[in-house]
Amino acid sequence: MARRSSQSPSSAAARRIVAAARQHFFAHGFRRVTMDDLAQELGMSKKTLYAAFDGKAALLRAVLLDKFHSVEADLDAITARSSADVLAALRDLLACVQRHSEEIQPPFVRDIRREAPELFKLVEERRRAMIQRYFGRIFDDGRAAGLIRADLPKRLIIEVLLGAMQAIMNPAKMEELGLEPKTGYSAIVMMILEGVITAKARAKGLRIGARAAAPH
Fold first, then answer.
1. Could you give the CA distance from residue 149 to residue 66 in angstroms, rounded to a whole number?
2. How many CB atoms lie within 10 A of CB 147?
């Protein structure tokens, strides 16, 4: 049977299934959530569920692709206007990243690392690509405006950001440091970006902090 999860869900039923699974998987992990549980909650037959997704692995992949799509749509909207106001775009970018990080709780991260390593690898690859693309564009616009330091290579800044995130964004390390995903991610970004903005940016009142970057 062909895998239907490689594309975004097209039918109304598939979208309902993905929305329900996304809520449960991200909040509680996916190991203990069964297809029977989802069918019962959605008030649909298992036949309908399996007509859209041939198993939980396929559904998990669809949930991740749905998440990627929503994150990238938000980031596209922000970076499209970054050249007009780099500082506002950077604050919005950080707020967006923090907001999307808050949806994913430690049980999901633990489950995907242990139970679906190939999908965990996909998550890391997409995360890398998104940071390179969106933060890279902000850095370029910021340098053009004299707000991001030009003496630090952009590639180095991004690699430091990626390396720090990869090292810390796992449940065991987060628990050891007493952090939650919503605070851990923003703390990493804050510490790194505070070191790359210029005196001109600080004079304009740029603050790389969670409260300054509150979602609209």
1. 35
2. 23
pLDDT (tens, 9 = 90+) of the chain, 216 residues, equals: 334 444 445 588 899 999 999 999 999 999 989 999 999 999 999 999 999 999 999 999 999 999 999 999 999 999 988 777 888 888 888 888 878 888 888 889 889 989 999 999 999 899 889 989 998 998 898 899 898 999 999 899 888 888 877 766 666 777 777 777 666 766 777 777 778 888 888 777 655 543 433 333
> Taking a C-beta distance cutoff of 8 angstroms, is the pair 50, 105 a contact?
no
Residue spans per domain, the chain: 1-64, 81-216
* Type of residue numbered 211: R
- The two tokens of residue 118 are 């190939």
The predicted model scores a pTM of 0.78
Looking at domain 1-64, its CATH superfamily turns out to be Homeodomain-like (1.10.10.60)
**Single-letter amino acid code for the residue at 114:** R
Instruction: Tell me the Cα Rg of the chain.
Output: 19
